[in-house]
Amino acid sequence: MECKPWYPVDFNQALLNTFTEETLTEFLGRPNCSPRFVYGVLMLPTVLKYFIREDPATDITKRMIRACVSGYMLYQISPKSPPVVVQTFNPHDTVQGMLVLGLDVDQRNLIYDFEGGLMNLVDVRAQICLKDSSLPCHDICSEQMVDAGMFAWHGSKEGLIPVESTAWPLDWFLKEKFYENIVNSQHRHMLDGSGLFL
Question: What residues contact residue 82 under an 8 Å CB cut-off, 6+ apart?
Answer without folding.
Answer: 40, 41, 76, 168, 173
